[in-house]
User: Fold Ribonuclease HII from Xylanibacillus composti.
Amino acid sequence: MLAYEKEYWERCGEWVAGVDEVGRGCLFGDVVAAAVILPKGWVCEEINDSKKLSEKKRESLYDQITEQAVAIGIGCVNAATIDKINIKQAARLAMKQAVEQLACRPHALLVDAEKVDVDIPQLAIIKGDALSQSIAAASIVAKVTRDRMCLKWDEQYPEYELALHKGYATKRHREALLRYGASPMHRRSFLKGILNEQQQLF
Assistant:
């Protein structure tokens, strides 16, 4: 999980940031990205793609990552912007914001299957969250951050049960959309494909 980091430590410098996003496939709320610079040579065997970890494990690793990290940046792009510029561009914008929020400028970026619009040496790695500790750490930080946002959104919109499904297109979420219509925080461009027969949602 450190092969790419070692290459870029030698080539560019010790501040190598992993970058990843979560929430790309959700019907509701922001897409969230994280950029994480871990200390050179620090190893945590349990860090892995956030999707392969339990919620409890992600929370535990989040605490370890935030304690150890040289710097962490978070980027968020809301549903209205996603509808305006499309989800791919919104995810890339969130990644850019995350990198720009870092307290120190990274020497290089390792990015999960994307290009970040910043003038920093970078490498896009397909399934990078399973191949790079830095990207996996970013995936965990982004996932925990967004899940916590979902708990707050659940208080605001309890009828959609966001705490359960985190905004993804589960059966319960689709049923709630049919029953209550779309909230201001739903991604209208996503709903058209799934619920195009429900004209009253728009």
